[in-house]
Amino acid sequence: RMVLMNGEFIPREQAKVDIEDRGYQFGDGIYEVIRVYNGKMFMAKEHLERLSASSEKIGIAISYSISELTTLLEELIAKNSLSTGIIYMQFTRGVSPRNHSYPTEAVTPTFVAYTKMLNRPLDNLENGVSTITVEDIRWSRCDIKSLNLLGNVMAKQKATEADCYESIQYRELSVTEGSSSNIWIVNGEKIQTHEANQFILNGITRQKIIQLCGENGIEVEEKAFSIEDLIDADEVFLSSTTSEVTPIVSVNNVPVKEGKVGEMTKKLQNLFVEAIISECGQ
Ligand code: PMP
After folding, report:
1. Distance 147 CA to ligand 1 centre (A)
2. Which candidate, 210, 279, 278, places its Cα nearest to that of 239?
3. Ligand 1: distance of its center to the CA of 109 in Å?
4. Distance CA 93, CA 252 (A)
């Protein structure tokens, strides 16, 4: 298995982190997860643009252009003969003696990327998943795809302990997002998801769904909704790079409608698969 570390391809076993790497000590860095279908990246440009936006928000200077990164990631896929899976990549601020402030001397960000085989979640896509609601205890810059994931980790652990796939987080009266996904409700022919502001990560899958709805005359409202709205909705689903458009069939042990996968969710799944095929082939 070959991984990419600071621009070099090296065997997984040789990739080591310094104890004073700021990513390790502070979670001071950013990351992306890109889906690979049929040996090709899906929406790579959008992911790399979000990476670049995240890096600018926290003042990490990435010395690679988006096209240089794309080439490196394509090489990584080829070296690992990856067909269906993901690329995980991260940049930390770099190695520097521990001190909360950004280092005053120039440090080189640490860059790591590696692949993982991961099939499409066909069972969940077909049958849906269970969820619980949890309070959103995270900070108010959730728009940054930061390595600091403790709030998300704690939320996901609550889901796992409740035998659920995902936690749906709420801040006061508003549902924000899942621990690692965006959350949507459907009522009639209209779909709704939290607006892209500092309280959610603007998912690349979310953006794709909004685009597909626009192209297919499906009305989307980008506005927060309440837990009551969630429980009363005709359909609920989540979206993410790894989970695509996954139906949610129960919330807090209460079935969504009859606990069946809804028609609009199926329609969006089909549009999403068409988008994958048109970009990555079959
Ligand atoms: N919100 C959070 C908190 C996430 O971690 C993720 C996935 N990593 C998403 C939303 C979905 O984003 P994307 O569609 O880009 O994977």
Report:
1. 13
2. 210
3. 23
4. 39
C-alpha angle 175/179/180, rounded to 5°?
Answer: 115
- Residue 36 and residue 77 in contact, taking contact as beta carbons nearer than 8 Å: yes
Select from 15, 102, 155, 117 the least CA-distant residue to 6.
15
pLDDT digits (tens, 9 = 90+) for 11-56: 999 999 999 999 999 999 999 999 999 999 999 999 999 999 999 9
CB 41 within 8 Å of CB 34:
yes
Q: Give the residue numbers annotated as catalytic, written as ranges.
A: 145
CA–CA separation, 148 and 52 (whole Å): 17
Helix (H, G, I), strand (E, B) or coil at 5: strand
Mean pLDDT of 82-104: 97
Distance 248 CA to ligand 1 centre (A): 16
Closest by CA to 166, choosing from 126, 37, 114, 176, is 176
pLDDT tens digits for range 167-211: 999 999 999 999 999 999 999 999 999 999 999 999 999 999 999
Token representation of residue 104: 């005053």
Top mutation candidate among 45, 46, 201, 205 for ligand 1, by most atoms within 8 Å of CB = 201
Q: What is the ipTM score, two decimals?
A: 0.99
pLDDT at res. 125: 98
- Pocket residue to mutate for ligand 1, from 33, 156, 182, 243, most atoms within 8 A of Cβ: 182
Residue 126 has pLDDT above 90, yes or no: yes
